[in-house]
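Anyone? Bumping this.
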Amino acid sequence: MTFGLTAEILARIQFAFTVSFHFIFPAFSIGTASFLAVLNALWLWKRDPAYLKLFEYWKTIFAVTFGMGVVSGIVMSYQFGTNWSVFSDKAGAVIGPLMGYEVLTAFFLEAGFLGIALFGRKRVGDGLHMFAVAMVAIGTIISATWITSANSWMQTPAGYGIDANGIFYPEDWWAIVFNPSFPYRLTHTVLAAFLTTAFAVGAVGAWHLLRDSSNRQARIMFSMAMWMAAIVTPIQIFAGDAHGLNTLEYQPAKVAAMEGHYESHPDGAPLILFGIPDDKNQTMHYSVEIPKLSSLILKHDLNAPLQGLDAFPPEDRPPAMIPFFTFRIMVGIGFAMLGMGLWSLWARYRKTLYTNKWLLRAALPMGGSGFVAVLAGWYTTEVGRQPFTVYGVLRTADSLSPVDAPAVGASLLAFIIVYFVVFGAGVFYLFRLFRRPPLEIEDHELDKGPTRAAGVVPGLAQEETLGGPNAH
Amino acid sequence: MPIDLPTIWAGIIAFAVLAYVILDGFDLGVGILFPFFPDKHDRNVMTNSIAPVWDGNETWLVLGGGGLMAVFPVVYATVLPALYMPIILMLLGLIFRGVAFEFRHRTTRGSSWWDGGFWLGSTIAAFTQGIAVGALVQGINIANRSYAGAWWDWLTPFTVLTGAAVVVGYALLGATWLNLKTSGALQAKSRRLAMFAGFGTLALIGVVSLWSPFIREIYFERWFGWPTAFFSSFVPVMLAGCAVLLWHGLTTDKHLQPFLAALGLFVLCFIGLGISFYPYIVPGALTIAEAAAPESSLSFLLVGAAVLVPVILAYTGYAYWVFRGKIDPEEGYH
């Protein structure tokens, strides 16, 4: 079961496959956890049952997503050992404690309070329940912080030494945790997670508004999502630009691959809008370019010199094919998100936010845009790190376990089958949950006060909220 | 016995693994027992009893794995390739088991399918964990900081036996947990199952205990040599005590006692393993001291562990306290 591939390529495909599936769940649950905390806080503050209903609506979706994130994440924590044991042995003393801290500060926090956040409102009361919801949300962000630090250390290693056996040992923990690319990557990743959730929430809101533009919960969803789009997207574009400049400083070969620059440009590099990279011949086919623009963007100077891949030894060059395209997909989606945000501001000003059919229709396909952008950005940075696992120090080819190709091939096949069955079903169930209309609230119900209101609509009492018609 | 950083860390990792085994043990056990409870409503009560806590229970497995990579990287880098197939199977089993909690409520037609996945996933996870323990006991071939054995070394009659022992042992934990958390006919059935699983567990512990001293000289020395046998003998004596408490609790309709007695069996078996292993972390291949990461890694993470593990235990205990008592059979999900 090797499919004619080497153990190294099979192990890389396996890691890419399992981490891609894993990444989309936390990318969604990080934002959803914070969204739930905001909704619950609004409910406690304003005692407007619409917020409680939205909380209950998204809570179910969060539970399904979070469960898939947990089980796909456990796979990651063991795959370093099964497939990349030499990397684990050599870098474990540096990168392991970062993951250890992730478990101690984040995973337990999320898991410990998740039960109370999902099932415990009646048992512990509003105050402690709010605390539990907040702990889950904070846990997801702490988790993102540590794992981003670990990933950043692999991209821009710092604060370490290497002994005679080639084993990394820590010298300065501050330098390891706060390695050069960490602050940029963390900001860019967490904002990406928030935007992913915002556009998913916006699409669900839009879908229900297209059926009934007076649905109050759908209005709140869509409005909150579009505020996020309008405010966070510009910040994210700015953060992404800063991240790119940081990459240029520490990983210039990656930027050359992203830009599709096989050749160095001593007096101003063009921005290649489109082309077909040819890694074999190290040349770009059919390129459409704007002269000097790349130097302007990256160096803020039209005539600044810019290194191409030819400035690096052939054995140290990343492939340009994947980063070139995935980078363009990510940036393209970023500007589409910006467009949605601006359009929504205009519609809001015109008071047509909930009724502008074209805006609502446009929001539907944008619902998945964050997931695509997150994965595209992830591929850009990870493929751009090749041919190293620890950038510039430890090669991917030297990181592999002493595994036989058939064993890796067989487990890869098993992962592919199980993931498509299990997470395919999970995504199907998520869409089923998105399709439930967020229940209507009549004005007279608001007069009955919060304690009554929560149980007025059949199927909305605490223990029934999850299901609606599909539950049991 | 020198108390130094590697020894402290070996203790913490051992604690994490033990916490995982007894905590996820009972919720995997509930899954293993699914075929004995075909009724949909019974199954809902059973999953409701573990739904609020299973995720926290499983986090100890991540701490065991992640912690091992941080403080004993060479163990992580040799044991996992040695156990390649059982580990992958365990992970796939845990996936089916983990998603079933939510998925079985999301569908009517596919519900029994996910129930099947819940049972199979739980059983495979338990069996492969037992195989992993057995494979460690029988020894792993390590040369130059790297696994040097073959891909099927882990599969022997002994490891199949330890795999079966863990499945039956987890079933005992699950049955005594259900005896604690449920009422009426469901509880009565759980109690009967706990008796069978109790007999099975004790029998399998007996066979494994009599077999393993003959695998390695050092094990035999620890258990039958003088003076170590004097200290080691408290394990079988206390095991017998737990067995009596288990039987007494089940026959006199105690709710908590059988569960605690079953936990006691697991803790004692775990201590027994420790007696056999020390000072090795991978028997015959790597000692705790030689497998340890540099001191800077150990102390950096220890600062966090010393503060955070007690905090984690406190809020985990609180979460169990919030969901204490019998499960209301009328309560739905979420």
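Late reply, but here is one note on the structure posted above: Confidence is low (pLDDT under 50) at residues 441-472 of chain A.
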